[in-house]
Write a sequence for this structure.
């Protein structure tokens, strides 16, 4: 197989471990910290997790390794959307496992959690693992979105583990997958299977973080990749001076990705979904805000600009949420067939007009026809609107165009507005991991094995102090139950890891808020350029602006 020159170099890269994990397995010992409590709903979480609740926080340090010498057979699973660095978690896990005892084995369950249930796996060896070091992607074993959440699945998982003599499972996933890792750990403990479960925090969305987990892996590389592209677009816009670029970026519901890209590139506009929800902003208000920037810049002769739109924003606009709920209701059950049988869009439109409340119809009426049709035609298997497929970058540019047309009519605006559209998501999820993600992920995997080796169950692999050089990173583990609270999901109260949305009183948002008026009017673009893998640490080991600001740097 032909591989690129960069890949050849990256295969040789030696990821940096936290100082306390350097110097060999024989020199890693455990320091037990304080017992923990869940972030909320302590009694309920404790009742649901009698075997894994309240365990101690732990940190690794240098000292004599006192872990039990036994053969470990570990299974690893990649769960959910790809995130740069996943391969290095597996490599770190493998290296620690083999360094501890060459007889130890690592099973990779294929294509996500379903691999465990279907007993579909491969066993890693040096030759196989060495092809994936420091590379992007999850193709080492594949990923999937099957949820491991039912007792029946857990029982099958226990059987599979027993069959192969598996002593521990490592689940690499986001908030949902790690919640399920916690539930599986409890099941394994309650049923005396002797199998441990360790989670690793993954997602480019950056919404798995809390007072213990400083960031999920993949966020660094994905946002750097999008920021490079946005910076390039800004420079193009500032060169040609004729287009307004509307750039949607991934991040499902949270706007961490959009905010980080804005901090990196200083665009004219960046919407933040969490602010839209908190201020109950309407589509019209948002379009007016963008149109204000377009008009102010046009008045200075700048008929160009860049606006970042977070993927999930429309769901945070209260009136739009109501509209979606009404559409779901309107097409529930057999009514969908009736709607689909209507011969023309005009007939369908009349059906919609009859079925929606006046308020929702007012919102629907201002949408461009392509978006109106997307809302009705692209439905998920349950018949619901697929909000993630809505082309919100086009929606906002169309709404802004309409506002500008009104202003032109009223004689208050006399510029040109030529929008172009982009969606950056998949472009960033499998990029070669930045040095930060390569180091962080390798450390997470290495550390996950140390947690296994020391007998911990129901813990998340935790590497902290991440804004400092890797030497100063701190390795340890945190009980998953500590991060849980009760939330209403599908009509039931469930224990879950709380999803971290952008905090409007947090330092990253505050910085953005303090500068955005200037960015909206001026051309204050910054051009981060491509991720650097070789060269001075000042450009190669840079963390995100979000992390730096959160750490007060
Ligand atoms: P995870 O939360 O599983 O890491 O996935 C995040 C994400 O990349 C979102 O940003 C995006 O909305 C979604 O996955 C896309 O999912 P899919 O790959 O199934 O299209």
């Amino acid at each position: 197989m032909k591989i690129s020159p960069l890949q050849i170099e990256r295969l040789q890269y030696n990821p940096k471990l936290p100082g306390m994990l350097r110097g060999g397995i024989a020199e890693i010992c455990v320091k037990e910290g304080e017992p923990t409590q869940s972030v909320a709903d302590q009694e309920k979480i404790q009742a649901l997790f009698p075997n894994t609740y309240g365990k101690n926080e732990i940190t690794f340090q240098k000292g004599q390794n006192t872990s039990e010498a036994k053969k470990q057979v570990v299974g690893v699973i990649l769960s959910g959307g790809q995130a740069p660095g996943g391969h290095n978690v597996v490599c770190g896990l493998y290296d620690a496992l083999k360094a501890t005892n060459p007889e130890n084995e690592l099973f990779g369950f294929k294509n996500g959690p379903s691999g465990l249930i279907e007993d579909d796996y491969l066993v890693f060896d040096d030759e196989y693992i060495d092809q994936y070091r420091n590379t992007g992607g999850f193709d080492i074993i594949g990923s999937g979105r099957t949820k491991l959440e039912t007792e029946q699945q857990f029982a099958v998982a226990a059987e599979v583990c027993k069959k192969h003599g598996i002593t521990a499972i490592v689940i690499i996933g986001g908030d949902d997958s790690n919640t399920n890792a916690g539930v599986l750990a409890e099941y394994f403990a309650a049923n005396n299977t002797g199998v441990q479960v360790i989670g690793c925090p993954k997602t480019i969305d950056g919404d798995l973080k809390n007072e213990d987990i400083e960031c999920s892996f993949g966020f660094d590389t994905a946002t750097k990749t999008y920021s490079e592209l946005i910076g390039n677009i800004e420079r193009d816009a500032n060169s040609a001076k004729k287009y307004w670029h509307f750039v949607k970026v991934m991040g499902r519901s949270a706007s961490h990705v959009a905010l980080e890209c804005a901090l990196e590139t200083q665009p004219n506009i960046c919407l933040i979904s969490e602010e839209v929800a908190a201020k109950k902003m309407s589509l019209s208000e948002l379009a007016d805000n963008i149109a204000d920037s377009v008009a102010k810049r046009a008045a200075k002769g700048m008929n160009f600009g860049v606006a970042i739109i977070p993927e999930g924003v429309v769901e945070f606009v209260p009136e739009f949420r109501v509209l979606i709920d009404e559409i779901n209701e309107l097409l529930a059950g057999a009514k969908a067939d009736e709607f689909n049988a209507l011969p023309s869009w005009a007939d369908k439109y009349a059906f919609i007009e009859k079925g929606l409340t006046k308020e929702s119809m007012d919102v629907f009426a201002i949408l461009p026809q392509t978006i109106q049709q997307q809302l009705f035609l692209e439905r998920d298997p349950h018949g619901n609107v697929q909000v993630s497929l809505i082309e919100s970058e086009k929606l906002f540019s169309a709404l802004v165009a309409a506002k500008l047309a009104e202003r032109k009519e009223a004689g208050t605006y006399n510029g040109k507005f030529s929008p172009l559209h982009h969606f950056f998501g998949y472009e960033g999820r499998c990029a070669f991991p930045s040095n930060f993600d390569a180091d962080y992920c390798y450390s997470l995997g290495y550390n996950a094995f140390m947690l296994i080796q020391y007998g911990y169950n129901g813990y998340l692999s935790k590497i902290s102090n991440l804004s400092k050089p890797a030497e100063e990173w701190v390795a340890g583990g945190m009980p998953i139950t500590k991060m849980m609270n009760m939330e209403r999901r599908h009509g039931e109260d469930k224990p879950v890891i709380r999803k971290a949305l952008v905090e409007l009183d947090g330092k990253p948002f505050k910085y953005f808020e303090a500068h955005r008026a200037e960015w909206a009017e001026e051309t204050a673009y910054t051009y981060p350029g491509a991720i650097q893998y070789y060269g001075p640490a000042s450009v190669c080991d840079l963390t995100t602006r979000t992390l730096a600001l959160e750490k007060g740097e």
